[in-house]
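Q: Hi! First time asking for a complex rather than a single chain. Here are the components, and I think there are two in total. Is that enough to go on?
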Amino acid sequence: MRRRIVLLLWSCLCAAGASLHAQDFKIFDRQVQIHGFASQGFIYTGDNNWLTMHTSQGSGAFTDFGANASMQVTDNFRVGAQVYDHNIGNLGEWHPILDWAFADYRFKPWFGIRGGKVKTVIGLYNDTQDYEFLNTFALLPQSVYPLDMHDANIAHMGGDVYGSIPLGRRSGTLLYTVYGGERFDNYYGGYPYALRKSVVPINLTSNGGPQYGADLRWQTPIPGLLAGISRMNQQDDGKGTFVPFWNPSVGQTAYWESTRHYWLNQYYGQYSKGRLHLDSEYRRNYIDAVGFNGTSPVQFDVRGWYVSGSYRVARRLQVGSYYSHYTMTAHYEGILGMVEPSRTDTSRPENHIYDKVVSARIDLNRFWNVKVEGHFMDGYGDGPYPDGFYPGDNPTGFKPNTNALVVRTGLNF
Amino acid sequence: MKSLKAPLVAATLLLLAPLHVLAGEVKIVASPSVRADSITVAELKSVFLEKTRSLSDGSHVEPVLAKSGSAHEVFLDRYMGKSDDELQTYYRTLVFTGTGAMPKFLASDLDIVHYVAKTKGAIGYVDIDVPVEGVKVLAIVQAGTNGGRRLLTRIEPEYPETLQRLQIGGTVRLVVTISPKGSVNDVQVVGGIPSSGKPPPRR
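A: Yes, that's all I need. Here is the structure of the assembled complex.
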């Protein structure tokens, strides 16, 4: 039934593609704008199933869509909300979520506040990673913006303080965001999925906790050049059920895990001039946690970076390429450490993914695009930290390299 | 006799920051509800990037843009520092993160003028030659100016030695055309009454 609804929606959007525009109407003499988007993708991989899809046979289980409504109540006060739904392989599974919903008051250009469910500003694209129409690429570099870990950092329930501070004509502008709140994984997200599919399956029914951080970016006096830094701190407490591997006879029992330290640093730069656009980012995610009901301390050190470039060849054609570099090390102690060796050698394919990507984006009109993209991946990083390749989806084991063809089309209005 | 033109032009040379109402090939048009007669480049950018919805005088403003055209290209290049693609991406980012609205885009300069004339707070841009009935044209000025004018360069005039020796003085009337960048494009002597009672010779 959901598939028929999606197909009908797609048919209507495609038929109306040439005349898409935002819808608006008035409430109490205030304009309300309605916007929406949808995308459909297809992935084929030569070896290894990727991103929880059966990509080795070709998979079209790669759909998402959303819609929002917003209103400028006064010159300084804005409210809005967006709903989002997706099905990507075994993630999302058509469970709609409230993507964001907040009230925003801007006292001055240098000081504003917003509260509610707010997209989290980290790096260049964290808060916009779901909107494929904003980028050249069908998939953002997975080393920094993993599709399957979409829930981990994308939004928080809380508040932001933000603003832009001009430094003078020759010094550019500083833009800052400071945020705090809570963030919880979606049950249909990558981390709970990875735990359900692990060698010792864990049914994690809740995971998350307080989150706070900041982003500072500098629009330099050189036109088109931007640099920035982000920091995020998180406390994750997870609860669920599992069968203890050290005593399976007890059957399903309560499970908990908790982070002792969980932080993320991200450094980024961007340069645009004319038709050329360059991005580069580095992210380090460090997690020090205790799992399996306090029996097993673990530390994950996940590092990713990429360099990307795109060029608008013609009015409707953009080409791009990026190199994405991901490594993960893990250290296990306690009961888990007795059965699982630590992972420290990032040269091994199970501990890294190096991805070379070439892409082309065709804008059929202002609202509709098609992308064709090739990925050439070295490694599969099948560690406990989700990174796109899941042992449960690859029961016969992993091949060291994966080539993928990604085709994706998207509409927005 | 040395020409009076150069020193007197120099004496009146207050190189103004762009106060001319016509900004290159585009002019900024605003609803009559907007109280200001001028807008700084920084304010203009801030309005069109939706960082503010009011001017420094408190006037409510909301931007309206052209879908395409030469005025659109000049405006983006001169005041926004973004290409059309970049601007569209910027607005969509605002819309889909909830931090801003998609501004109005209209097909032609005349559509913009008509819309601005009837919409409170609307501010847009049109080609310099487009008739602007019903709207006001805002001067674009540099930020930090006093009354919209800022001295950029001052040249101390040299009084002609002969006239000084003969104690001859007077008034010369000039028409000076100043470019938007503040340079003097043309000077025409249109009259004057030196102390002898005769007008100075025309060059």
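A: Chain A has one domain: 2-412. Let me know if you'd like any chain examined more closely.
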